[in-house]
Design a protein that fits this description.
This protein has about 230 residues and is an alpha/beta fold. It is built from ten helices and eight strands. A hairpin with a 2-residue loop joins strand 4 and strand 5.
């Protein structure tokens, strides 16, 4: 039964390190991988391409239902997976700060979230799933075996994002990134539908000032406590 397939959810704000941790964890466990945030980013990018207003809830929901998305692990810690939309690699398009802002706008629309929920749950396949997002443990996979809430200070997350974008020759202001992160946190935590918050049974891991290997060790420890051995 699908309900018997183990799920590890890793929720938290943008820039906390969810992507790298999820990719490495899924590789270790040999589980499938879901980057739910990418689904909202893709929805926002396609909406902008098709000139669909960000307050047009029904058209955006219909768009979300039709998305044909595939995640391809890369092994690159700076960009742990490629995102394909109907075969087109749109990884670079969805990783901009503007795409993140657009994602936050569409994510607050109930019909869009509902439209993507079935797609998200379809990633739950044997031998298991690592699901990265903001409401994976609170809404989408409420019975997940392990729930992690990965966070870091806004300043730390802005510095990480700044380095990522600079390494890709994308010109950006650190101060503008910090402002954007704070605004997005405020919007995500206070939206009426599926606000960003830890699940009641989640383990909170603060990655501020901690190396990625140490964070992964903490997450793996929680996974092992719950008897998950991987595929």
């Amino acid at each position: 039964m699908n309900a018997d397939i183990p799920v590890v959810t890793i929720d938290g704000p943008s820039g906390a390190g969810k992507g790298v941790i999820s990719q490495r964890l899924s590789s270790i466990l040999r589980f499938h991988l879901l980057d739910s945030g990418a689904l909202y980013r893709v929805t926002g990018v396609v909406a902008r391409r098709q000139k669909i207003p960000f307050d047009a809830e029904q058209p955006l929901a219909e768009l979300a239902k039709r998305l044909d998305i595939e995640f391809i692990p890369t092994g690159d810690p700076e960009e742990p997976m490629s995102v394909l939309l109907s075969g087109e690699d749109i990884t670079r398009d969805i990783r901009t700060d503007a795409a993140g802002v657009d994602a936050s706008k569409v994510a607050r629309l109930p019909l869009v979230r509902l439209g993507l929920r079935q797609l998200q749950r379809s990633f739950r396949r044997a031998p298991g799933l690592v699901a990265d997002g903001r409401d994976m443990g609170t809404v989408v996979f409420t019975t997940a075996r392990v729930k992690i809430f990965l966070t870091a200070s806004p300043e730390e997350r802005a510095k990480r994002r700044y380095k990522q974008l600079k390494d890709k020759d994308i010109d950006v202001s650190l101060l503008a990134l910090l402002d954007s992160i704070r605004e997005r946190d405020e919007r995500d935590m206070n939206r009426e539908v599926a606000p960003l918050k830890p699940a009641a049974d989640a383990v909170i891991v603060d990655s501020t000032g901690i190396g990625i290997d140490a964070v992964l060790d903490k997450v793996l420890s929680e996974v092992k406590k719950r008897g998950i051995k991987g595929g």
